[in-house]
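Q: What structure does this chain adopt?
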Amino acid sequence: MLVPENIQAALLPKVLKFNPEISQKAKVKMLIVYDNNSQNNKDEFFKELSQVMEVKAIRSNELEEAIDGYDLVYFMPGLDDFSMICKRSKVLSVTGISQYVEHGKISLGFGIQNNKPKILVNLTSLEEEGQSLSSDILRIAKIFN
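A:
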């Protein structure tokens, strides 16, 4: 079960305040990586987040050359294989697919636990991306290694 895009869009800026590298920035810049299968979901997510940060939607094959200068990359379903680019570029990876976080492909995500949204963090992936989150947010998140 996926967390609806509008809920993820409301939670993400709040969670980013607990990332010291991102919270200091005047304007957060995010890429949304999508494909033909996730076009509609991308549009909803883009609309919600573009009000609070600078957002650009790109196709997966554009990520390698577009990532410079961005603070985080959100991966739509089926595109987790491209998350290695975030690790090489030291950019935070985010998703709404809990399995991607559980398996260490993506650092930050959202899932459902007891019918409520839950923040998911993979500490190994987070470290590989050169990112960190404060202990305040880690206490309420579900942690994976």
